Amino acid sequence: MLAGFRSFAKSPFAIVLFALLIVSFAVFGISDVFRHPPGKWVIEAGKRTVTPEQFKAQFDSYRDRQQQQGQVITPEQAVAQGIDTRMLKEISLQESLAEVIRKMGVRPSDKLIADILHKQLAALPPGVRPFDPVTGKFDAKMYEALLAQNKATPVQYEAQLRDGLAQAQLFSAVTHGVRAPLIYSALQAAYGLEGRDLAAFAINPAIVDKVAPPSDAQLQAFMKENAARLTRPETRVLSVARFSAKALEPSVTVPEADVVKAFDARKASLSVAETRSFVQIVAPDAKAAAVIAQRLAKGDSLPAVAGAYGKSPVAIDGKPKAALPDRKVAEAVFALAPGQVSAPIAGDLGLSVVKLTKITPAAAPTLAALRPGIEADLKLQAAQGKAYEQTQAYQDAHDAGANLLDAAAKAGALVLTTAPIAAQGVDETGQPVPGLTPDVLKTAFELSAGGESELIEVGKGEYYAVRVERVIPPAMPSLNEIRAPLTQQWMLKTLLERMKAKADQLGLRVKKGESMEAVAASAQSNVQRVPNITRENARQFQGLGRDLLIATFNAKPGEPFTSRAPQGGYLVAKVEAVRSGTVAQLARVTEAMRRQASQGLYQDVGDAAAEAARLQVKTRVNLPLAQEAIGVDPATLPGAKDGKKKPDAQ
Q1: Does the pLDDT at position 7 exceed 50?
Q2: CA distance 457 to 208
Q3: Can you tell me the mean pLDDT for 633-637?
Q4: CA quadruple 96, 98, 99, 105: dihedral positive or negative?
């Protein structure tokens, strides 16, 4: 479902929070609204296009999110899993709908865009808002920097905002007052409240023929059946040279003179100016100002004094002198003592009287307080410089003909030679090998045996170079290597097959009329009963296992069925009774689910609208170009013929 329509269905369209839109950029990226040279688009929907660079940015955002969750996905894996085609379809539907809305003339006014943008920015945390902290004025550079952190520009963001508002306006008009028919939620209520009484007994392994150890021929056949699972992937032995600022940092010493110099450079920017808090009462004229000053000096309450002239006291909290817009008021405030009242002030903005309530003294940083941070920064900078020097020494030696090992030794770099590892960075036991980044792995598995990479920079003073010492092709292990675990798996599989066959036989007896208790007793088992399992309370019965719960709701009442047991093995089960919810329950759930049913209807409308828009504007996608953009050669993919495919029409 389109992200914009989901947002509309869940909340009033007018409440568009900046933070949510920024998150949506991280998920879906930014689609530029400008045309690009013919043939250079990944998606073309009428006058809207998405470039390879934009598609790659969206794909990279997806990979970053997956990596934050501990899952590393290479471009090749993404293509194999169909992630590229799903992203392409989702974005093409977004662009198609936006193009149709544009052609319909649905366009938010510039004033609405400005108002929404102002509200969004004002709602951000104080340290993030793009407003000058002193004057309070909008700061365009801060705004651009904020968007740049999310890989956007003001033009792109405002175009995205305009698209989102146009879509929300259209759907709010189309779906205004629409409610799903009551029968929709009533059917869902009946479905969810249907209760089933289950009776079941497990197959006792003791009643099936004992499984004898397999012969070599049987194991060889079993290996052949499971060749895909048993084949070991290609592995490689790598030598990795690491030039690491982090590793060098403990050996770096920082001269005291450098620490003092850095402190002096930072001291001014880290100093905190004196601030003052005060209350100001604006006076209508000079006579009133004098009276206000006299009354405040006597101790009269601020609200009472201000109220006598139809005014309210204005509290100003913790402002430095430079932040006060009226220069004359600032001079007066910073001349007072706490609790003191000023004389009438003829300021640049009119007459007023102020009472000082608090002084916060200026604070200057000390070397002792800043030393740990300064030393850490200087150490890091020095270590990064050393790492860079090592890379230059390595590069000079490598260019002169030395191999990776010799060049790294001359540069004083760390070299790790790995055990055989797979493309995912795991060893033969499935454990991850530390120190191998996705970029290093990708580079290593693109080289041939004996090949050496260029230096790979991964940022923050970290560099790598990799050499492929040996390539071990995919291969099946020998029978002797895996005989013991393979034998165990074969015997378990055979036992389960026999238990399944026995369960089917016993189930047939129940179907012919024997009672569950009699059949269970003959199988050295006992019948267990679980009453009133519903789809609403199914979580309470997770101990029954997913297979049995699904089978329970799919089974016909009174007919026995065979299912996998939650702890392994098989069981024979039967739904003995089916009952519907009470009238009161059905009424309650029907009403409670009506809103959900309406939202589902909205989503269906949105899906249908996006699909219709795609057909109307004849949207086209260029899958090979999208794959190239994320670093995959389409010609190397299964099914590719004679090089790259032509752009696909969608």
Answers
A1: no
A2: 62
A3: 84
A4: positive
Ramachandran quadrant class, 111 (left: phi over 0; alpha: psi -120 to 50; beta: rest): alpha
CATH of region 195-230+480-579: 3.10.50
- Report, at the CATH architecture level, how domain 3-174+619-649 is classified: Orthogonal Bundle (1.10)
The single residue listed with the structure tokens 């430095």 is 320
Tell me if 3-174+619-649 shares its fold with 235-254+368-472: no
Query: Is residue 30 over pLDDT 50?
Result: no
d(CA 193, CA 360): 65
Measure the CA–CA gap between 552 and 21, rounded to whole angstroms.
43
Mean pLDDT estimate for the chain: 84
103-121: pLDDT as tens digits: 888 888 888 888 888 888 8
Q: Residues 561-580: pLDDT tens digits? A: 999 998 889 999 999 999 88
CB atoms within 10 A of CB 89: 16
Residue type, 535: R
Compute CA 424 distance to the chain's CA centroid, rounded to the nearest angstrom: 21
Task: Tell me yes or no: is domain 272-360 CATH 3.10.50.40.
Answer: yes
For residues 288-318, one letter each, b for 16 or more C-beta atoms within 10 angstroms of the residue's C-beta and e for the rest, the string is: bbebbbebbeeeeebeebbeeeebebeebee
Sign of CA dihedral 155, 158, 161, 165: negative
Nearest-angstrom CA–CA distance, 612 and 100: 9
CATH 3.10.50 for domain 235-254+368-472, yes or no, is yes
Q: Give whole-number Cα distances, 287 to 251, 299, 348, 485, in Å.
A: 73, 19, 18, 101
Residues 470-515 have pLDDT tens digits of 999 999 999 999 999 999 999 999 999 999 999 999 999 999 999 9
Place of tokens 């996905």: 73
**In Å, how far from its chain's centre is CA 61?**
8
Mean pLDDT for 433-460 is 89
End-to-end CA distance of the chain: 17
Q: E-strand spans in 271-380?
A: 275-282, 314-320, 345-347, 350-360
Residue ranges per structural domain of the chain: 3-174+619-649, 179-193+583-609, 195-230+480-579, 235-254+368-472, 272-360
pLDDT of residue 338: 94
Q: Which of 175, 173, 183, 121 is nearest to 146 (CA)?
A: 121
Give the pair of three-digit tokens for residue 140. 């365009």
Collapse the DSSP code of 98 into the 3-class scheme (helix H, G, I; strand E, B; otherwise coil) and give the result: helix
Count of Cβ atoms closer than 10 Å to residue 502 Cβ: 20
The pLDDT of 140-169, averaged and rounded, is 79
List, in sequence order, every residue forming a beta bridge with 466; answer none if it has no partner.
Answer: 240
Spatial CA neighbour of 510 closest among 195, 209, 204, 199: 199
3-state secondary structure of 469: strand
